[in-house]
Amino acid sequence: MDSANRAEEAVAIRRSIRAWPTWVGARSVLGFLPLASEVDLRPLLAEALQRGIRVSVPLVTADGIFQPCLLRSLDPRDLETDAMGIAVPRQREMVPAEQIDVALVPGVAFDAFGRRLGRGGGFYDRYLPSLRREAATLGVCFGCQRVPEVPAVTHDARVEWLASGTGVVAAQPISPI
What we know:
The protein is of the alpha/beta class and 177 residues long. The protein has four helices and eleven strands; from the N terminus they run ααβαβββββββαβββ.
């Protein structure tokens, strides 16, 4: 995608998330600060911060543990780049998984069943099951990243919802047969 199309679709995706009732009622969210190929959620996260919502973003510790880290500001002076090239808060305050209401999950690809292709580290696959049952997981990607089928194994975590420029939809159940 060229940068103009990426920016236009990101605006539509953020609009869809804003209108999603689960987002509207959330008090604590796990977002992400985007890599160049990901949907830019920073305007959405900035609005959440202004509304008093507790916003966290992923931080992977030196020993490879994924933890939500409280995001106090999107000011570049308050952020640094980690070893994987991802922006993270300079000040570190971890947010327990049981406090997250909504987790916005990036991916290289998603299918209609909520299966996700990540970047190969397995961080979200290990983290998402630690969320409380009532927490919602929302896959966030561009339309060109939606594919008919993402290969998966038993330990791959699925998302329950999928965001697009036309709205947020529930992932389809996978038949047990």
